[in-house]
Amino acid sequence: MLAVTYRGPNKVRVVKKDEPKLEHPNDILLRVTRTAICGSDLHLLHGFIPDTRVGCTFGHEFAGVVEDIGSSVLSLKRGDRVVVPFNISCGTCFFCSRGLTANCENTNPNASVASGVYGYSHTTGGYDGGQAEYVRVPFADVGPMKIPDDMTEEQVLFLSDILPTGYQAAEMGEIKPGETVVVFGCGPVGLFAQKSAWLLGAGRVIAVDTVDYRLEFARQYNNVETMNFSEVDDPIMTLLKMTDGRGADVCIDAVGCEAKGSFAQTLFGVKALLMAGAATAINWCIASARKGGNVVIIGVYGPPYNAVDIGTAMNKGLTLRMNQANCKRYMPHLLEHIRAGRIDAQGIISHRIPLEEAAEAYHLFDHKLDHCTKCVLIPPNAA
User: How far are the Cα atoms of 164, 222, 225, 367 from residue 371, in angstroms, in the given order?
Assistant: First the structure.
């Protein structure tokens, strides 16, 4: 089969690999019909996630058709179409039983770090991902969700990660009716965090980015106010002025470890790799939130320390919340939002590209070329 594999820092290549096999009675073999490139895949590509090994298959956003099933699988049959959450969860451990499927303690040998994740290095279990023609899906009675017969894979594809991630970010912000929410980042997760802020009752949503076409898309897609931080003298002072000098009620970091905007953070965190990437977005959230406000970190960071302004957060009495998205908890609820037309999830797709051209798609997405918002890869056996 064809698969998108890591070949070293800043290199991916589509190669032929053996098709995966069932390894456990609760596995399924999935024929992938749609898969997407996530912004966090770029962190892997750029070398920010430890123990990313040459030859591993990328991809944690995918949907497809069940080709084979293990002997103990009860909820699925061959031919079912499913969308699969990015985090692999057992469904029964201490954390899964509390809805914290992103923190499952049985699917990753490094369980103190995170649950297992498809295609996201040996730090998260070493599972091959779904940017391939086929993928093995363990715990098949727990994770995958059947796609309704009247819906397409593209309509529900982002239930695998970025839509629940954006929604959880807004939910963790505990947005009260009429509150002001600032979302740092207009990538796919930021777009869904903005959309979700409105759904949860925000009275005002401000999106911050430095790429004009992404800001314009956010205005059109989410009806938000925008700020291009590269066009103002002081982003924090600008946001404070926009919020009557007090600051926002909720600030969401939807950027992660490769944030721009601070020379020192970029130098030490991104170029020299002395930290787990740049903490610029975290610090801007802390600085632009009102006293007693909420800061949510949903952007991805590597394990080592960051130069985070925790002292200011303490002095301002901020509440900081963060986690990987507990996708399984949100998938049924968000499916209804999609069905009702409140969220046009597939509306953020800008490029549909054959899987064979994945290296070019990564380049396009990474360098923000051709107004790229979201790339969906289509395997040759998708039909």
Answer: 24, 17, 20, 10
| CA atoms of 179 and 194, how far apart (whole Å) | 13
Among 34, 21, 54, residue whose Cα is nearest residue 135? 21
- 56: closest CA among 130, 137, 144? 130
**What average pLDDT score do residues 10-34 get?**
97
Tell me how crowded residue 244 is: count the other CB atoms within 10 A of its CB.
9
Q: Which residues pair with 134 in a beta bridge?
A: 31
Examine the pLDDT at 325 and tell me if it is beyond 50: yes
pTM confidence score: 0.94
Give me the residue label for tokens 């999935």.
30
The mean pLDDT value for 125-145 works out to: 97
Alpha-carbon gap, residue 52 to 62, rounded angstroms: 20
d(CA 301, CA 285): 15
Query: Domain coordinates of the chain in residue numbers?
Result: 2-160+326-378, 163-322
The CATH class, in words, for 163-322 is: alpha beta
SS3 content of the chain, % helix, strand, coil (to 5): 30, 25, 45
- Convert the pLDDT of each residue in 184-223 to its tens digit: 999 999 999 999 999 999 999 999 999 999 999 999 999 9
- Give the 3-state DSSP-derived string for 2-52, with helices as H, strands as E and coil as C: EEEEEEECCEEEEEECCCCCCCCCCCEEEEEEEEECCHHHHHHHCCCCCCC
Which residue do the tokens 């993928």 mark?
135
What DSSP string runs through 253-281? E-S-TB--S-HHHIIIIIIS-SSSSB-HH
Integer Cα distance of 98 and 326 in angstroms: 10
CATH number of the 2-160+326-378 domain = 3.90.180.10
Distances (CA, A) of 290 to 28, 190, 194, 317: 48, 20, 19, 9
